[in-house]
Predict the 3D structure of the following.
Amino acid sequence: MTGEQLLTILADCSGNRDLTDPGTDALHRTFEELGLDSLAVMESATRVEREFGVALPDERIVDLAGPAALLAEINSLAEHA
């Protein structure tokens, strides 16, 4: 999965279209800085599982600070699947 794909999913699930604007550097900010609540992040994780076949355990998601950490987790799980 690419950062662009993840940011598109996060934007769709949160309604925050600014996440896909290259000038925001959204990938390297925290969920809090981006105004994303846990519901949007969990919804995004569900969509990742549905579209990419990578299941993210809830207990791992809540410990992730931002999109870059989430992307690393997704790609790590996909690599070991």
